[in-house]
Amino acid sequence: MLILKTLARGADLHGFQIADSIQEVSEDVLHVEEGSLYPALQRMLIKGWISGEWGKTEENRRARYYRLTKDGRKQLEQELERYGRVAQAIARILQPA
Amino acid sequence: MLILKTLARGADLHGFQIADSIQEVSEDVLHVEEGSLYPALQRMLIKGWISGEWGKTEENRRARYYRLTKDGRKQLEQELERYGRVAQAIARILQPA
DNA sequence: CTGATCACATAGACAGACTATGTCAAAAAA
DNA sequence: TTTTTTGACATAGTCTGTCTATGTGATCAG
Q: What local confidence, expressed as pLDDT, does residue A58 receive?
């Protein structure tokens, strides 16, 4: 969900940029290790939630730039909806009562 | 965390009651299967976060009643603190921006 | 040209949830 | 009375996904 949401901001990003963004926006609370990142991207490619194109970074290194597909956008909606419900449910249980 | 929090309300509960409570308070959003519940309770017993005493239910069936230990209370505090930080971090990433 | 770094990738260990069973005793049904 | 159902606990095995560790090229810096 976080990767999809990161790509949903519009810019095509490569793996490192996605991981960096998540870490940065979360103010260092969340880290995405490479061993989690790349398998996750592969799974999402196979599911058709993202597409990836090889390109070059500003520093002239090869990198795969990912972008959300229509299915990916739909998937993100579903995951957001589900996460919202679960977070609310947890909040109810954690209520001081 | 949810099990610990459920026991933190004060009443000694057996496994079924804990699972039922989580499901009920979450308004059926969260389910705890037995295959998750009992191993989790075992782990927490070993860690010393909860203690369990055999007793009888109102219907005269044998059941193990669990209660939070001092360590369990401390553990709950830590998990609540951590969950709060993570939930906040996720919220930042999900912000419409 | 040699080492560090960027970016991608995979193998293997590990944790925890789930499905599927199994047990035992009390309650309910036959 | 015998059988079946139900409550409660428990474990084995599967599966998913994260992590650590490692490896691969290619580019940049010294």
A: 86
Is the minimum distance from the CB of A40 to strand C below 7 Å? no
Number of structural domains (chain B) is 1
Residue A38: CB partners within 8 Å, gap ≥ 6? A15
CATH code of the domain containing B45 = 1.10.10.10
Which letter does DSSP use for residue A10 in this model? S
Contact (Cβ atoms closer than 8 angstroms) between residue A68 and residue A76: yes
Please give the Cα distance from A86 to A82 (Å, whole number): 6
Q: Are strands A13-14 and B50-56 parallel, antiparallel or unpaired?
A: unpaired
Q: What is the pLDDT of residues B6-26, one digit of tens each?
A: 999 999 999 999 999 999 999
Phi, psi (degrees; rounded to nearest 5) at B49: -85, -25
Residue B31 approaches strand C within 7 Å at CB: yes
Residues of A from 51 to 70 whose C-beta is within 7 A of strand C: which are they? Answer: 57, 59, 61-65
**Please, are residues B31 and B12 in contact by the beta-carbon 8 Å criterion?**
no
Q: Which domain holds residue B47?
A: 2-94
**B62-68 and B50-56 strand pairing:** antiparallel
